[in-house]
Specification:
- The chain is an alpha/beta fold.
- The protein folds into three domains: 5-215, Rossmann fold, CATH 3.40.50; 248-375, 3-Layer(aba) Sandwich (Rossmann fold), CATH 3.40.50; 422-537, ANL, C-terminal domain (GMP Synthetase, Chain A, domain 3).
- It is 28% helix and 28% strand.
- It is built from 14 helices and 28 strands.
- The protein has a nine-stranded mixed sheet. A four-stranded mixed sheet has the order 3-2-12-11.
- Helix 5 (132-144) links the parallel strand 6 and strand 7.
Length: 558
């Protein structure tokens, strides 16, 4: 019997993958005991080939060319999966078809998911068994609106074909390295998110050795850029991912094993881990406590990205680790761009370090100004929005980050956003003037200002208001209820300070409000409760709201 031959694309990604996986077939890449997954290189290659076949079967032949490459005019495949082995298989099987995968949040309403399917012109969606119910709801919603979408269940732990196929690179199956390789959705100004297209060559940087012998934790959703990219890069490096719950207790127990060698998370996770340590570990007998400390000190690389980390949190981790956290400055358009190094001054506030390998950085005014970024793997465009793409690139093709910074020696220091018109909140952008306009429209408010503030270890949307009458009792909960039909949920204020009689807000001599002064005056808050008298807070953990969720309440990101 003639052997079965499976052909993979002729590009650095699959050349590296096939060579490495063939050389180390039993190296375990993903350990997920809860879902019964212990996937080595051989199993992952089997699952990639199986899922690629499922995609070929589900889509019409017209979706592919003679070499079974997906139509470059419609390359996108939506992926609905947690950040585990299902996601990895879905992403790599899509790439093996010559397509680009687009991970979406599992909390999207059917209306939101259908809009993203239409925006990308995707004709199929790969769905994890964990999200089977959501996938069915989305399919029914699309069908009712004459949108055809093939729902393809992500299948893993598949048995290899018999006889076992020969897997080779097809010399003729070449792909343009600048063509789409992944589509990441990120917060827009209003309504649906915008799609950031990254090129295929973002997957071409082969690691110096395989396997890396590192162990990492996988516990976050892959619709965030850092997770979406890192999970695939780690597989290509032969890094072992241990899939766990996104829970401080579980993360600390994983540290305690001393197996984990690398850890990366956003600032809020580090704050939650700090709080858990202080409340549950620090009080343990010395011998028990030392197991956790030794485990976390065994981490070889500990990085934080996705926002500014509070000084108390940075101080806690510096003391616990015996060294500072590595701070990574990143964006959806460029991913990791600037990183603190061993020679970065830990006492230099808001230091973000030096450019990452392959990234060019310049400041608009020489040694200070807007931070501009450029790399060979940066985004190529915003999907369906040429004007927005042109607006964020300078004449040399550098991406305008919207952040200001300056140089101290050879280290970059971030000064803040170039615009005070938006507040970053949970990875979204809250337009200040829109929220102020809706506040002023309320009949019981005569004056309103919106400023950023920090509390609960994250950025908050803070409102300063003056009631129409001094006797009026205005509460934050009342404001949120009255604005829920006028603003998306993520734009609703989470902190409130009511002005007293004759109390004046800081302003210039011409009457322009000084928002930074307002933040300092009214919202210089501790990181944890209790709050000072006169300030109200609403904890808005997604999914805890009493009122029904509407489309785009969380900007298509949560």
């Amino acid at each position: 019997m003639a052997p079965i031959i499976e052909q993979l694309p002729n590009e650095p990604l699959f050349d590296h993958l096939l060579h490495s996986f063939t050389a180390h077939p039993r190296h375990v890449l993903v350990h997920d005991p809860k879902n019964g997954v212990e996937a080595d290189c051989s199993q992952l290659l089997t699952d990639i080939l199986y899922m690629r076949h499922q995609i070929f079967q589900a889509l019409p032949a017209s979706s592919f060319d003679a070499r079974r490459r997906i139509d470059p005019e419609n390359p996108y495949v939506i992926v609905l999966a947690p950040g585990n082995y299902d996601y990895i298989v879905a992403a790599l099987s899509t790439l093996a078809c010559g397509g680009a995968f687009a991970p979406i949040s599992s909390t999207l309403a059917p209306e939101e998911a259908c809009h993203l399917l239409e925006t990308t012109n995707a004709s199929c969606m790969l769905v994890s068994p964990q999200f089977e119910a959501q996938g069915s709801q989305i399919a029914r919603y699309c069908a009712a609106r004459n949108k055809s979408v093939a729902i393809i269940p992500i299948a893993v732990n598949n048995a290899p074909a018999a006889p076992r196929p020969l897997v080779r690179i097809d010399p003729a199956m070449t792909l343009d390295p600048t063509s789409p390789g992944v589509l990441i959705f990120t917060s827009g100004t209003t309504g649906p998110p915008k799609g950031v297209v990254r090129p295929r060559r973002v997957w071409y940087n082969s690691p110096p050795c395989f396997p890396s012998n590192h162990v990492v934790l996988a516990f976050r959703s892959p619709h965030w850029v850092g997770v979406a990219m890192r999970l695939i890069w780690q597989v290509l490096a032969g890094t072992r991912a241990e899939v766990i719950e996104n829970d401080p207790r579980v993360i600390w127990e994983s540290f305690c094993t001393a197996r984990v060698s690398r850890f990366s998370a956003p600032p809020r996770t580090y704050a939650q881990l700090m709080k858990y340590f202080q409340e549950h570990i620090d009080c343990l007998p010395v011998e028990q406590r030392s197991r956790y400390v030794k485990g976390v000190r065994a981490l070889q690389r500990v990085t934080v990205s996705g926002g500014v980390t509070w000084p108390t949190v940075m101080g806690f981790w510096r003391e616990l680790l015996g060294r500072p956290l590595r701070n990574i400055y990143s964006s959806t358009e460029v991913t990791a761009a600037i990183e603190t190094t061993e020679d970065s001054d830990p006492n230099l506030e808001r230091c973000i370090g030096k450019p990452c390998r392959g990234v060019q950085v310049k400041l608009s005014d020489g040694d200070h100004g807007e931070i501009l970024l450029k790399s060979a793997t940066m985004f190529t465009h915003y999907l369906g929005n040429e004007a927005a793409t042109r607006a964020v690139l300078d004449e040399e093709g550098y991406y305008k980050s919207g952040d200001f910074g300056h140089l101290v020696g050879d280290q970059y220091v971030i000064d803040g956003r170039s615009s005070t018109d938006f507040i970053p909140y949970r990875g979204l952008r809250v337009p200040v003037h829109e929220v102020e306009a809706r506040l002023i429209e309320l009949p019981y408010i005569s004056e309103a200002y919106v400023v950023p503030a920090s509390f609960h270890y994250m950025r908050q949307v803070a409102a300063v208001i003056r009631p129409q009458t001094s006797k009026a009792a205005v509460s934050l909960s009342q404001i949120r209820v009255d604005l829920q039909d006028k603003l998306q949920r993520y734009k609703l204020p989470t902190l409130l300070r009511t002005l007293h009689d004759n109390e004046q807000v800081p302003e210039t001599t011409t009457g322009k409000p000084l928002r930074r002064k307002m933040e300092e005056k009214y919202f210089s808050l501790p990181e944890e409760p209790p709050l000072p008298a006169g300030v109200e807070f609403c904890d808005t953990d997604v999914g805890t709201e009493e009122t029904p969720r509407r489309a785009w309440d969380w900007g298509g990101m949560m």
